[in-house]
Amino acid sequence: MSTKLKIGLFGFGCVGSGLYEVLNQSNLLNASIEKIVVKDPTKKRNLPASNFSYDPNSILDDPSINLVVELIDDADAAYEIVTTAIRKGKNVVSANKKLIAEHLAELLVLKDEFGVSFLYEAAVCASIPVIRNLEEYYNNDSLAGIEGICNGTTNYILTRLNNELKSLPAGKQAFDLVLEDAQKAGFAESDPTLDIDGFDSKYKLQILILHTFGLKTIPEDVLNLGIRHIKTDDILFAQEKGLKLRLVSFARKINDKVVAFVAPLFVKSDSFAYDINNEFNGVSIEALFSDKQVFTGKGAGSFPTASAVLSDISALQYGYKYEYKKLVNASSLAQDFELKVFVSADNVAALGKIKLLEVEEQFTSHNYAYKVGRINVSQLTHGLYRNNPDLFIAFYSESEISINNDLLAN
Ligand SMILES: NC(=O)c1ccc[n+]([C@@H]2O[C@H](COP(=O)([O-])OP(=O)(O)OC[C@H]3O[C@@H](n4cnc5c(N)ncnc54)[C@H](OP(=O)(O)O)[C@@H]3O)[C@@H](O)[C@H]2O)c1
Question: Does any ligand 1 atom lie closer than 6 A to the CB of residue 126?
């Protein structure tokens, strides 16, 4: 028997209004939106004003509402809404990866304490059904690794840089131009930091790591390198080797430790990531017995994201909860590891400061230089490398990764 779901919806923007439409068009008869809370009373809406409230308590204090769907764009306010709803015994569906990644451990304890369900399929790659698959389908087969293109904005930028290299201005200007276009087209936020510096991809990776390896992380645990400092010469370097650059969320089990990072990766034509273009997302799951399986689809947008929210609502009709069975045998995160890296700079002197373990290849001209070699990734967590506007850093997807046991012991 399914439970009648009385929904209190927070947010009526891109995803919230999409959910309203999708729910109306679906045959989910046993769920209805009872109240909608938004923020700005002056905003014009496509529904009568009587549908909206600006008081969160109109939902949170209403005992008849048994499901809160949180679709707002403010992670701090979302934290208050979600934790209050759980404490009041309401099930919660959210699409807010930042909120979830920043408060993972606390949210898991809280939802158990109050015996409610907390679902968030839309938070990772929107319409791609990855979380429930990791929870249910990949419940028994041991997982070796997961890789995803989880951010449409950066994938759109990298695709255009690759495809239009000849017609774009040289150096860093090409990136600035394409980012501006992405903002105009609505693919990128006016403050693009979370996307282009890899934070958005990292929040999603943290959620994937939880459901793949049963590992709870905080954002500071996982390295994120972005694409802000990419230059046309870097794209040319990739093309000359038959490679493409993609911003990848990466996690793999090596010797019982999980190696995880977000970074631009050079990918070969046989990699799933090579053919994920424009604003599309893709996730490759590697299991012990079923080998690699790839999911691709729309990682953003009103209806695609709403469809994942709808799927969570539908699952809740039958009391679905994530069971987090993998938490029991969770491995730990590798603190340091070594792999093949590419570092480039248009300020040639800046490159001299990078210490590689072995240099395989290098090039220097008056306005561009690069080095390829192996590096201890812990070096890159220092501000000197991470936020240095002179340096673009990318990893090699196929390179052997070794865990630095000396550093692990510290
Ligand atoms: N857009 C996508 O493609 C996508 C994909 C996957 C996940 N998500 C996630 O989905 C969530 C919503 O994103 P969105 O793109 O729909 O955002 P959006 O279009 O900017 O809409 C945000 C909505 O949240 C409301 N809001 C903001 N602060 C609020 C508060 N304190 N109380 C009540 N309402 C508040 C806004 O109210 P007003 O209307 O009054 O301004 C607006 O209706 C975010 O967590 C986002 O990361 C989005």
Answer: yes
Q: Is 127 in the pocket of ligand 1 (CB under 6 A)?
A: no
Instruction: Show the CA angle centred on residue 126, arms to residues 120 and 128, nearest 5°.
Output: 100
Asked whether 153 and 182 are in contact (CB, 8 A), the reply is: yes
Tens-digit pLDDT profile for the chain (410 aa)? 577 999 999 999 999 999 999 999 998 779 999 999 999 999 999 999 999 999 999 999 999 999 999 999 999 999 999 999 999 999 999 999 999 999 999 999 999 999 999 999 999 999 999 999 999 999 877 899 999 999 999 999 999 999 999 999 999 999 999 999 998 887 788 789 999 999 999 999 999 999 999 999 999 999 999 999 999 999 999 999 999 999 999 999 998 899 999 999 999 999 999 999 999 999 999 998 888 999 999 999 999 999 999 999 999 999 999 999 999 888 899 989 999 999 999 988 888 878 899 899 999 999 999 999 999 998 888 766 777 888 999 999 777 899 976 443 33
- Tell me which of 71, 97, 100 to substitute to probe ligand 1's pocket, judged by most ligand atoms within 8 Å of the beta carbon: 71
Is the CB of 16 within 6 Å of ligand 1?
yes
Contact 284, 265 (CB under 8 A): no
Report domain extents, the chain.
5-126+303-322, 134-291+335-409
Residue 238 CA, ligand 1 centroid: distance in Å: 37
3-class DSSP assignment, residue 18: helix
CA of 10 to the centre of ligand 1 (A): 8
Task: Give this prediction's pTM.
Answer: 0.96
Query: Is residue 91 classed exposed, middle or buried when 0-12, 13-18 and 19+ CB atoms within 10 A define those classes?
Result: buried
* CA–CA gap between residue 132 and residue 155 (Å, rounded): 24
Ligand 1 near 40 CB (within 6 A): yes
Domain 5-126+303-322: homologous superfamily in CATH? NAD(P)-binding Rossmann-like Domain (3.40.50.720)
The correct answer on CATH 3.40.50.2000 for the domain covering 134-291+335-409 is no
Rounded CA separation 52/50 (Å): 6
- 3-class secondary structure, 406: helix
